[in-house]
Amino acid sequence: MAIAILLGDALNGEVPQPERSDSNAVPLEHIFTILQNERRRQVLRYLADQDGPVSISDLSEAVAASENGKSVRQITSQERKRVYVGLYQAHLPKMADMGFIKFNKDRGIIDLGPAAEAAFPYLNDDVPQRYNWPIYYLGLVGGGWVLLAVSFLTRLLTPLLASGVFLTVLTFCALIHAYLARTNRARSTLTSPASTE
To answer: In the chain, how many domains are there?
Structure first.
């Protein structure tokens, strides 16, 4: 039956089109290619902390200082130059080609590109998480067992009431966890203006 309908539509000039995937989405392959290098991760972090475009000189100084564990004033010209050359010749053009930064090579100006936002959820995986949910849940379960044991031993609470209190607190914690996870997923979904494949 479905074949007959499709065949009839095709004969009428109405050929069903396959669903198109969002060609503007930043491919994970591009995100991970950019983030596999520490220097490129530092570029994204530095640009994210700035209010607008920066010069390649300022960027090079900041990255060199970070790589060498020094302040910007303490880095040598050789350390600065080594980072500058690597950024200018390799990292910045690659990041610009994939849309993670905007790089005006003639003026030496760099800014975040449209694809940068898609990398931030992965970029921040190496910093401590704001909420450590497994520990929260382990604490809740431990507290629930203590509450249940106290209810059996002291008869201050009935086991049913203790279980109800525990399940209410656990449900509340799970709802907060689900809300925060959904909010973080919504923030991490960003598209670039054009696919770079």
So the answer is: 2
Which residue is associated with the tokens 């590109």?
113
- Residue range 7-20, pLDDT digits in tens: 444 444 444 433 33
DSSP string, the chain: -HHHHHHHHHHTT-PPPPPPP-TTBPPHHHHHHHHTSHHHHHHHHHHHHSSS-EEHHHHHHHHHHHHHTS-GGG--HHHHHHHHHHIIIIIHHHHHHTTSEEEETTTTEEEE-TTHHHHHHHHGGGSPPS--HHHHHHHHHHHHHHHHHHHHHH-SS-HHHHHHHHHHHHHHHHHHHHHHHHHHHHHH--B-SS---
Range of the domain at 168: 133-188
The answer to pTM > 0.70 is no
CA–CA gap between residue 60 and residue 92 (Å, rounded) = 11
Please state the φ and ψ torsions of residue 107, each to the nearest 5 degrees.
-95, -15
Residue whose tokens read 């689900």: 178
pLDDT tens figures, 80-135: 999 999 999 999 999 999 999 999 999 999 999 999 999 988 876 444 455 677 88
Query: Does residue 22 sit within a domain?
Result: no
In a domain, 159, yes or no: yes
138 found inside a domain:
yes
